[in-house]
Design brief:
Elements: E1 3-7, E2 10-13, E3 18-25, E4 34-40, E5 47-52, E6 58-60, E7 68-73, E8 78-83, E9 92-99, E10 116-117, E11 121-126
Parallel strand pairs: 2-11
Antiparallel strand pairs: 1-3, 3-8, 4-5, 4-9, 5-6, 7-8, 9-10, 9-11
């Protein structure tokens, strides 16, 4: 029932920063949804990047921990991903995802835990 639209992607040099946004619509209580960012490079599986649940507990992939920060502004129905110290390995299509259910801790970055997906925004990091 929620519609998700990502924005903020682009091309940046290694070491640079980008902030992705995901706007949710079609629902009243955005704050109760579990939200996450995933990414997928050509020929590779979609992988979890970061998640934040209704209690604002967060989870990060080891590859981005310390560089990326996930946050949400429930008053604006918006999810964010601040990406700093970007590396060429971060190049991928980035997707926003949501679900009504709070995942188990071990499943927070599992693609199967999320029922609603945006169309993605491309991030390209050049060396």
């Amino acid at each position: 029932q929620m519609d998700l639209v990502e924005s903020g992607g682009g091309e940046v040099l290694a070491g640079g920063s980008l902030r992705l946004s995901c706007l949710g619509s079609g629902i009243r209580f955005f704050g109760v949804y579990s939200m996450a960012w995933f990414r997928q490079a050509p020929g590779k599986a979609r992988e979890g990047v970061a998640s934040i649940d209704r209690y604002e507990f967060t989870a990060y992939a080891d590859s981005v921990r310390g560089r990326f920060t996930i946050s949400r502004d429930n008053a604006k129905n918006t999810l964010y991903l601040q990406m700093n110290t970007l590396k060429p390995e971060d190049t991928a299509m980035y997707y926003c995802a949501s679900d009504r259910v709070v995942p188990a801790q071990s499943e927070r970055l599992n693609v199967d835990q999320y029922s609603t997906w945006g169309q993605g925004t491309q991030v390209t990091v050049s060396s």
